[in-house]
Structure formats: structure tokens, C-alpha cells
Amino acid sequence: MKISKLLKERVSFSFEVFPPKMEQSLEPLKETLEQLYKFKPDFISCTYGAGGTNKGRSTELCEIIEKSGHDVMTHFTCIGNTKQDVLDYIHEYVSVGVENVLALRGDIPHGLDGTNGDFSNANQLISFIKENFPDLCLAAACYPEKHMEAVSIEEDINYLKLKQDCGAEFLMTQLCHDVEAYERFVDKIRKKQIELPVIVGIMPALSKDSIIRMTVSNGCSIPRELAEIIGKYGDNPEDFKKAGKEYTAKQISKYMDAGINGLHIYSLNKYKDIVDILNASDIHK
Length: 285
Ligand code: FAD
Hints:
Structural class: alpha/beta
Helix content: 40-55%
Bound molecules: flavin-adenine dinucleotide
Distance between the termini: 25 Å
Order of helices and strands: HEHEHEHEHEHEHEHHHEH
Strand order of the largest sheet: 1-2-3-4-5-6-7-8
Radius of gyration: 18 Å
Number of domains: 1
Shape: globular
CATH topology: TIM Barrel
CATH class: Alpha Beta
């Protein structure tokens, strides 16, 4: 099913997984998926390796999810891809049943000053896919606290408008712990005539090092409540995880109250902690 269609009907609920390395077994991820399916997600998104690595595994994983009777959205980037590559890879995704693509630029690999492909920015990739695969539903990334490279939030939002104009049908956010910052962002984009539904991505706080790394490497802020958890429990992984799960469950409730169009959990190929968080949140009660 096209995600744009379901967003017209309800607030979506989804998970994100990443394809394991080629030499790793898919069995643990299949078990994770089985557990996540119990929450009746509207779709599962499957990331695309940074720098364009692991493409084969990504298609294989999309096929597994589709065959299980669940909808999938693949992520896809400009990095290293010519127009012909895009045609070939998207054909492959379509052949396994994929109907939704999150079209991204990708992070520029170290040592390069561009994407090393035919498209420099996501809006160009969106236009090209739309032209060649008009039946696909395309999504674009957005950054409530601004993309790291953007000079200002206003400039970033102008480029976001371009992604809407080029054919994106909904937006998915970068992690953003600060719900008020998200609300200010939505106000700003609506004033710029960006009307697309916004699905919010939630990054669970499960370990001190990884939550700091993922937050800081994306140029996002750490709110006081999370900073306190890091300060109090940073030296004790178990206590940190307990407090981090409670914090994440509260974040989910806060976002639901903020009137979002969809909730997307970065499940990081895990399920036990995710199940605890969802059971502690009020979304499935
Ligand atoms: P763009 O929209 O191209 O924006 C990149 C920068 O260029 C921004 O600063 C923007 O303001 C500016 N810009 C945009 N358009 C133009 C233009 N036409 N001219 C000049 N400047 C412009 N990466 C992966 O490798 N794999 C993944 O699976 C993946 N999944 C992601 C999922 C989500 C929800 C998000 C938010 C990000 C994801 N990323 C992923 C990371 C993403 O690839 C990076 O954030 C990347 O640096 C920017 O991608 P973009 O599509 O937003 O790029």
C-alpha cells in the first residue's frame, strides 16, 4: 500500500530496520521482525547503507518483509548512483513489491566533495524517480533542528519546499528529542506552504554512547531531561537503559499529543527494549 494513502486515513505507526552485513545471518533480524509485527505496524522502513553499500541485502530484506504481508518503504540515496543505476535499482525494488521510497541525498563520504553520482541533492533524485516510476510513493527527509550543512533553518526549509514541488508525498524527520523544536518547525513549514504529512522518527535512548553519538553527529540538541539521565546514569549501562526507556516512552506520548501524522520507531534491529518502550507508552493501550 502507498503510505501517502494511509496517511490520509490515520496516524501511521512504523518501525525502521537496517540490512545486516552480507556475511551476517538474517535469522536474528527475521525474529525481530516477527516480534515487531505483533504491534501491527503500518509499514517497515529499510535503510540504505551509508555510501551506497550493501544494496543487495537491502532488496533481499524488502522482499522478506513484503512476503510476510507487510508494507515496506526502502530508503535510497544519490551516493555513487548514475541515472542508469537508479533505474536498475528501483526496478529491482519494484520487482519485489516495494511501493514506497524515501529518496535521500545521503551523507557525503569522507574525501569526496559531492555525491559521486548523477544527482547532487535529494530533490533531483525525487524528480527523476517520479518521472520514471510515477506509481511509486516518494518520501523526503526533513530536519526539525536544521540539516547540519544548511546555513539557516529558512534555507533548509526552502529546499524542503523544492522536495515537495518535485513530488515527495510525505516527510520523515531526523531524530529530534526536543518536541517544542519540532512544533516550531511544523509552524514554519506550514507558513511556507509545505503541506505534506510529517512522520516523526523516534530514536530510543538505550545506551549513553550511542544516543550521544547519534544525536551529536546529526547536529541535534540534547534536552535537559535527557542530559540529566546521561549525567546520573552514564556510568551504569543497566540503569541508563531503564531510565532511557522510560524517557523514550514519555517522548512518544508527547509527540502523539503534538498532533503528528505518523510515528516511526528507529528500532535498530532490536525488539526486547522496543517492546518494553511500547508497552510503557500509551499508544497501544
Ligand atoms: P538534501 O535534501 O539534498 O539536503 C542536503 C543539504 O543540502 C541540506 O543542507 C539542504 O539544505 C541542502 N540542499 C537541499 N537541496 C538543495 C539544492 N537543490 N541545492 C543546494 N542545496 C540543497 N542516509 C543513508 O545513507 N541511508 C539511509 O537509509 C538514510 N536514512 C535516513 C532517514 C531519515 C528519516 C533521515 C532524516 C536521514 C536519513 N539518512 C540516510 C541521512 C541523509 O542521507 C543525510 O541526512 C544527508 O546528509 C541529507 O540527505 P537529504 O535527503 O536530506 O539531502
